Amino acid sequence: MNSNKENSRRQFLRNTALASLSAGFIPVIGSAAAPDNASGGCDPTTLDAYGQGPFYTANAPTLTDNQLALANEPGTRLVISGVVRTLDCSLVIPNTLIDVWHANDAGAYDTVGYNLRGITYSNAQGFYIFETILPGKYLNGASYRPRHIHFRITPPGFPTLITQLYFEGDTDIAGDAAASVTSGTYDATKRIIPLTLNAENKYEGTWDIVVNGSATTALPDLHLDKGMLYQATPNPFSTVVQIHYGIFEPAQVALQIFDIRGALMATLDEQYLTPQKYVAIWHPDRMLPAGVYFIALRINDLQVHYVKTMKI
Ligand SMILES: [Fe+2]
Q1: Sorting pLDDT into bands at 50, 70 and 90, what band is 269?
Q2: 277 CA distance to ligand 1 middle (Å)
């Protein structure tokens, strides 16, 4: 531990795109341990019992700046993001086509044009993100369908997965024939995600997609049994970020920071670390553009975990 404390006083940053980023590794009190479900907990994304529904329109446009809803679209802003993974969660899948559509704030679909319809792609690290508005509810027979977003997800060269995403706390989930399914092929439980309100008054949700596809990013297996990121704080940030993480076995460790396009913005230099909790301090350059960034934990050259953070 003493050697780590010595090391913590050094600056470990290897600059890439930005000149004055800085960081340090700081061991913190407390032992780190792999979560109980470290080697499990990988659930392939399920189909939705309602399939794609009656409102799909082919040939939607590709999103510009990850915006599914125009700035003047009525409703509550919502940001959805995550990572596309292979069926055993061991690899990320770049360039997966993600075709998204949903109802507007009033519960109506655009059946003429492409409002609230669009295509995005997972980036080189398998990350995807889009901003839209919280979908409205609409009647399905005598009851309202819960708020939901439709997805057609196509890894390059693989079949399309058609499903829907719901939100925790929606009182219409229990009465919905698709959202209430809790087992089997159409199990919706992992497709009901929590939303949190961020500092920009936008709801945010994280949804990792696990599909039958082939990864082109060379990331071998093993993830949370080696280490994990606990949080990046504050989030959003403006001047400094504390990155809390744990290492579960002695290893070469590095933190890498990517922008939403998958470009490497910074690497916190590799360091041999012993199993415990650490905090890395990142001082981004003031010129770092506002937006979403992904912090990835690399252990022995495996990208084992990531957290999303936002600069404002
Ligand atoms: Fe729908």
Answers
A1: low
A2: 44
CATH of the domain at 204: 2.60.130.10
Tell which of 153, 180, 210 closes a domain.
Answer: 210
Structure-block tokens of residue 224? 């949370």
Instruction: Enter the tokens of residue 44.
Output: 């392939």
Tens of pLDDT, residue by residue over 91-125, are: 888 899 999 999 999 999 999 999 999 999 988 77
From residue 20, how far is each of 54, 264, 289 by CA, in Å?
52, 15, 14
Distance 159 CA to ligand 1 centre (A): 21
- Output the CA 150–ligand 1 centroid distance in Å: 6
201/231 same-domain check: no
Helix (H) or strand (E) holding 2: helix 2-8
By DSSP bridging, strand 203-206 and strand 77-85 are parallel
Structural domain containing residue 306: 2-37+223-311
Are 257 and 202 contained in the same domain?
no
- Lowest model confidence (mean pLDDT) among 12-26, 155-169, 255-269: 12-26
pLDDT at 11 over 90: no
| Prediction pTM value | 0.71
Kindly give the distance from the C-alpha atom of residue 138 to the centroid of ligand 1, in angstroms, as a whole number: 8
What distance in Å separates the CA atoms of residue 178 and residue 174, rounded to the nearest whole number? 9
pLDDT at 245: 86
Which pLDDT tens digit goes with each residue over 162-178? Answer: 999 999 999 999 999 99
Asked if residues 253 and 297 have their Cβ atoms less than 8 Å apart, the reply is: yes
* CATH number, position 249: 2.60.40.1930
